[in-house]
């Protein structure tokens, strides 16, 4: 067999903890659930029986993960935490993103998938205006956070970035102690009035990021001395230390091994109830495992946005179908 | 054997491999030769400095019995107890007393064997203990430059005879020349010292550092982190790069025109020298600083921005601490160059003959490299070793300064 024609999507071993977590999550998705077991049954069953053949490379073991048994409509009844309307991004003359409209909801993980260079990271960076740091970038359209215009000139971008936290592709802890890494955000925003309060915030954030047990005895050691997965969880702890409302994750697991990835995914599940989360990922299995909403980007356009289960089992667009079955990308 | 494997073993391939090895050997050899040559040059420099200069830290002293009763020195011991003792002694004819005593002890040829160094030392001895005026005391006094040079093996015939005579009577000994580290410039090589120039250099460097470092770092930070990219910042960047390459004497002329003629600052003072050298050092710090700031990974900036740090917080909490080692490296290079600079300081009058160490940055002073330049121009043979000795002092000063900077740099160095 010619090696060049290897399997487009490598089936990854399902991580048991994550599967279990998802199963638990499925029952917990209270506010948006229709609470109709029959419907859940129907939705879950259809892809397996009728359209399973469309997904030759997704192993059967993964399919239960992508069942989003809960909500019928794409948008839950509550107003979205963030909404983007006709967002376009230009780098100089080149248009990187064309008329993207997406809603990000509380209690849901929204995944952005698509091939490299399709604009999903660019879009994510619009949500907390990180594109401001690129001099040639120009963003048009409307982005709202709780109905507030994010792109308005009177929106304080520093506060916005505290409210909309970000975790980056490569773990990027500050070359300071673990404690200082987490304490930095609360300190510059004046969230703690005393040293003990600051220590409390650090401890709480590290616990939420699932790192406390591993580092509680060495908080003064350098954050860069941790392993890659620990560094990424430290970055998540740093992001949640300022008590954000939304967390954006830009391929948070692309530099990590499968075990560290599983831990981060588990963490995403635990954080879901507290924050609205948007995650960019290359890894479709990951999108299927962690998200309830998925948007598929291709060549600067958002091709399809919907419930994760629908995107993966019953996509409306041919391009989505081709991508998730591994015909390109 | 298949066709594919023989391709890696045929004659042409083996030749290519051999050629590659030969090329590598040649390159290694060339590199080693370059390093050996530079070590050779360095060793030659150090050896020549040490062999000529170290003797400058030593001088010869001759024993001389002095009886002030027979001399023209009429000093009232009571007047030497007050604060003006130094001046009173300086007014007395101690030189005549030494000359007289030397003639009495070693014959008429010895009348000129002691120089200014001996006069100063005897004057200090009188102030320390006025009782010597009333009796005959034997002093060890530094000999004059002609005898000193002869004792070190480079004098004329008459002086060498004198040295032989003194040595045979055990009246000549070698002693550490503390005067050289304590005194300032003088016309007599036996009483010169580097202290004045050292202090001048130190004060000048302080002024340069206090001005060039903050201005250079702030300019680098602003240009790299805050300034918009447009035609103006491009023009500023080009000008700063050119400024770093401007010959130093032109900075001297600029200093002369602006600081002395327009601003009327004191001539030949460390203040003006420092200002002029700061102009010269600043572009070096700006360029090094910008490169250091540029090399801070963007992920650190993203991380800080991501938790809601403002642009200034990102710069001063994260970027600048990480760039500091690089900035300090540039500062070391710039300051070392400023310390060794002579030409611009000649233009602003620091080549004047200054016999007293400066008390502040507005007092007239000279600096070590200018002092070296001035001494190297002197006719007296004794200045040869003084010049080399001053070079040794300058090199030690530079080593000390760089050592401090490297220590600071290593303290600030952080890994990411």
SSE blueprint:
The complex is a heterodimer of chains A (329) and B (416).
Chain A: H1 16-28, H2 37-49, E1 82-91, E2 94-104, E3 109-113, H3 120-127, E4 137-145, E5 148-149, H4 157-163, E6 164-167, H5 178-188, H6 195-208, H7 212-215, H8 228-241, E7 246-250, H9 258-271, E8 276-280, H10 284-290, E9 293-298, E10 301-307, H11 308-313, H12 318-324
Parallel strand pairs in A: 3-8, 3-9, 6-7, 7-8
Antiparallel strand pairs in A: 1-2, 1-4, 4-5, 9-10
Chain B: H1 3-6, H2 11-53, E1 58-67, H3 85-91, H4 94-106, H5 116-128, E2 136-142, H6 145-151, H7 157-168, E3 172-176, H8 178-182, H9 195-226, H10 231-243, H11 248-262, H12 270-294, H13 298-306, H14 311-339, H15 343-347, H16 368-376, H17 382-412
Antiparallel strand pairs in B: 1-2, 1-3
Helix pairs in contact in B: 2-17, 3-5, 6-7, 9-12, 9-14, 9-16, 11-12, 12-14, 13-14, 14-17, 16-17
Q: Assign the CATH topology of the largest domain in chain B.
A: MetI-like fold
Strand content of chain B: 5-15%
Name the strands of the widest sheet of chain B in spatial order. Answer: 2-1-3
Per DSSP, the total helix count of chain B is: 17
Q: How many discrete structural domains of chain B?
A: 3
Q: Compute the separation of the termini of chain B in Å.
A: 52 Å
Sheet with the most strands of chain B? 3 strands, antiparallel
**Helix-and-strand structural type of chain B:** mainly alpha
Distance from N terminus to C terminus of chain A (CA atoms, Å) equals: 22 Å
Total DSSP helices of chain A: 12
Question: Hey, which two chains have the biggest interface?
Answer: A-B, 30 and 22 residues
SSE ordering of chain B: HHEHHHEHHEHHHHHHHHHH
Average residue pLDDT of chain A: 79
Averaged pLDDT of chain B: 88
């Amino acid at each position: 067999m010619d090696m060049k024609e290897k399997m487009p999507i490598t089936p990854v071993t399902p991580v048991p903890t994550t599967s279990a977590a998802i199963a638990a999550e499925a029952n917990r998705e209270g506010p948006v659930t229709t609470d109709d077991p029959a419907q859940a049954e129907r939705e879950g069953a259809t892809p397996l029986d009728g359209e399973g053949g469309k997904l030759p490379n997704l192993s059967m073991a993964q399919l239960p993960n992508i069942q989003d048994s809960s909500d019928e409509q794409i948008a839950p009844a509550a107003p979205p935490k963030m909404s983007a309307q006709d967002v376009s991004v230009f780098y100089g003359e080149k248009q990187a993103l064309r008329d993207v409209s997406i809603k990000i909801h509380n209690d849901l993980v929204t995944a952005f998938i698509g091939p490299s260079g399709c604009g999903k990271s660019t879009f994510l960076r619009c949500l907390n205006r990180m594109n401001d740091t690129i001099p040639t970038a120009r963003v048009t359209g409307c982005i709202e956070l709780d109905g507030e215009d994010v792109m308005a000139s009177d929106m304080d971008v520093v506060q916005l970035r505290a409210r909309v936290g970000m975790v980056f592709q490569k773990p990027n802890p500050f070359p300071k102690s673990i404690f200082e890494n987490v304490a930095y955000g609360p300190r510059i925003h004046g969230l703690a009035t005393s040293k003990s309060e600051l220590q409390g915030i650090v401890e709480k954030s590290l616990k939420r990021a699932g790192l406390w047990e591993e580092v509680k005895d060495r908080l003064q050691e350098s954050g860069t001395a941790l392993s890659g997965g620990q560094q990424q969880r430290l970055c998540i702890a740093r992001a949640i230390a300022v008590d954000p409302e939304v967390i954006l994750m830009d391929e948070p697991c692309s530099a990590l091994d499968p075990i560290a990835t599983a831990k981060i995914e588990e963490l995403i599940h635990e954080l879901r109830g507290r924050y609205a989360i948007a995650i960019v990922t290359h890894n479709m299995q990951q999108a299927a495992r962690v998200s309830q909403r998925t948007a598929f980007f291709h060549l600067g356009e958002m091709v399809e946005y919907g419930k994760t289960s629908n995107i993966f089992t019953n996509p409306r667009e041919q391009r989505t179908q081709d991508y998730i079955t591994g015909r390109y990308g | 054997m298949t066709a594919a494997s023989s391709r890696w073993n045929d004659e042409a391939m083996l030749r290519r491999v051999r050629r590659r090895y030969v090329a590598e050997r040649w390159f290694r050899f060339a590199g080693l030769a370059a390093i050996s040559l530079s070590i050779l040059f360095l060793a030659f420099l150090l050896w020549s400095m040490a062999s000529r200069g170290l003797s400058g830290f030593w001088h010869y002293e001759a024993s001389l019995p002095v009886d002030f009763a027979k001399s023209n020195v009429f000093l009232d011991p009571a007047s030497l107890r007050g604060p003006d003792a130094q001046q009173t002694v300086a007014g007395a004819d101690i030189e005549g007393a030494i000359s007289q005593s030397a003639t009495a002890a070693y014959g008429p040829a010895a009348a000129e064997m002691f120089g200014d160094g001996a006069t100063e030392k005897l004057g200090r001895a009188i102030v320390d203990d006025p009782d010597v005026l009333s009796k005959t005391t034997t002093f060890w006094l530094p000999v004059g430059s002609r005898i000193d040079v002869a004792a070190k093996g480079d004098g004329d015939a008459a002086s060498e005879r004198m040295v032989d005579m003194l040595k045979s009577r055990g009246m000549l000994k070698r002693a550490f020349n503390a005067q050289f580290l304590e005194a300032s410039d003088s016309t007599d090589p036996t009483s010169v010292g580097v202290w004045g120039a050292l202090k001048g250099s130190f004060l000048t460097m302080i002024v340069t550092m206090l001005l060039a470092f903050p201005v250079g770092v702030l300019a680098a930070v602003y240009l790299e982190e805050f300034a918009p990219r447009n035609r103006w910042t491009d023009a500023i960047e080009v000008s700063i790069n050119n400024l770093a390459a401007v010959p130093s004497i032109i900075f001297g002329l600029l200093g002369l025109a602006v600081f002395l003629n327009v601003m009327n600052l004191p001539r030949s003072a460390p203040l003006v020298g420092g200002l002029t050298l700061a102009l010269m050092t600043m572009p070096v710090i700006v360029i090094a600083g910008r490169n250091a700031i540029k090399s801070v990974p963007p992920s650190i900036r993203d991380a800080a921005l991501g938790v809601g740090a403002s642009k200034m917080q990102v710069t001063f909490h994260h970027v600048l601490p990480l760039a500091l080692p690089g900035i300090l490296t540039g500062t070391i290079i710039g300051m070392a160059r400023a310390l060794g600079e002579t030409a611009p300081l000649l233009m602003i009058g620091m080549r004047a003959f200054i016999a007293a160490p400066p008390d502040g940055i507005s007092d007239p002073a000279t600096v070590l490299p200018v002092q070296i330049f001035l001494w190297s121009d002197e006719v007296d043979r004794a200045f040869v070793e003084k010049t080399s000795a001053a070079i040794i002092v300058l090199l030690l000063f530079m080593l000390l300064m760089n050592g401090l900077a490297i220590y600071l740099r290593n303290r600030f160095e952080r890994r990411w």
